[in-house]
Amino acid sequence: MSQLALVYDADRKQTVQSRPIPEPSNGFVQVRVEAAAFNPLEYKIYDGYVPYVEKYPTILGGDGAGEVTKTGPGVTKFKVGDRVVFMSYFPGSTNLNGEIGAFQQYALADVRYTAKIPDSIDYDSASSFPVNGNTVAGDLYGDLKFTAPWLGGEGAHKGEKIVILGGSSSVGSYTIQFAVLSGLEVITTSSPAHFDYLKSLGATTVIDRSASDVAAQILAAAGGPVKYVVDAVSLQSTQLLGVEILQHKGKLVLLLPTEPSAKTAAEAKDISLLGGVGPDNFYFSEPIFWETVGSYMERGVVKPNRVTVLPGGLHSWEEGFDLHRQGKVSGTKLIMRPQETK
């Protein structure tokens, strides 16, 4: 049987093509992909900025949600008909020749990075979670060494503060929620349009990112320099802001490469620069993370991103890539629905 897939070729052309539906091997399930989320990582891979692809042709798309249609040998965690969300970017995933990328109508999901989702969560919203949720887990519980909620650390860090720059971004909004789940007091920045939304996620203080005295406002809210900053934007201006508000020997987590000026400023304060770009900085050490994702969503302590569905199914990729390139995505996650492809 065949399906439609968004195929990325070695000559950097990406087209919707007919391809065989992949069959699940040991440790994989086949998923009918109802929703796939866009990440900035995809357009950066496509544009050649992130050399992630090792074999062509391939299929991009790190975030998918849908229904299990087949299970591979030895799979007991999932059954046909289960509603799941899955992550396609993980160690070794570049060698699977496109069978796992979410930008297709049927994909293979590695059961280690797949979670059941409650009936109360729709596929569009759920698909916003995998890459960004995994990035957040890497930031908070890998880089910053907080005790993870799924390892007994729920509420364990009461009395500690964290600043999250860019709270309305996908990573930022999930960082707020997991930080709150860990007991941390959250101070974040965004445009005023998102203040109420971020407070609804648990942020204690939200500060206008464009305020001329943003650093002074953060320091006032925190009662002085802070120990932990997660920069979910990671442009030069935010990296420098992160260094400015950190205490001596503080920790700054970045999602993009360190800007030279920020590195120099950080060295002067002996600040640890953590994080980075791509799957090498994801959180893979505890499979139990994926076993608990659905329960957090069901409890409402982790709410999926607000989403914007682009029309056209897989053909919407150019619009999605361009919106990210132009920096026009704010406070929402872009979604495509592969099954709507014509």
Automatic annotation (TrEMBL):
Pfam families: ADH_N, ADH_zinc_N
Enoyl reductase (ER) domain mapped to chain residues: 5-335
UniProt xrefs under SMART domains: PKS_ER
GO molecular function: oxidoreductase activity, acting on NAD(P)H
CDD domains registered for this protein in UniProt: enoyl_reductase_like
Superkingdom to which the source organism belongs: Eukaryota
Family annotation (PANTHER family): HYPOTHETICAL OXIDOREDUCTASE (EUROFUNG), ZINC-TYPE ALCOHOL DEHYDROGENASE-LIKE PROTEIN C2E1P3.01
Name of protein: GroES-like protein
Organism of origin: Mycena venus
